[in-house]
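Quick one:
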Amino acid sequence: MPAYVIVNVDVLDEEAGLAYAPVAQESILSHGGRYLVAGPTPEPVEGTWDSSRFVVIEFPDMDRVREWYDSPEYRRARAIREGKVQVGMLFVEGTLPEGFSLPT
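Output:
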């Protein structure tokens, strides 16, 4: 079942952000990930959203997400962004095409 990485991003140092982005992207693509959404955070329909950028990445499954996140390639990307790009990240598994079932 597909798994998704949902990311909130705030770039504090533009130069570091520009260095981080291609390294992170290469690591994601090399582990079977694909970008579904990436760009400035749109105006929320409800509530607040406290980041300037928003990314959704799809991977074939949760094992691949964890493999990517723990990979030497992505550890290198994290080192580049440390203290210069704030990232909030969620790992979530997809659901069956029928959606979820309510508890009975």
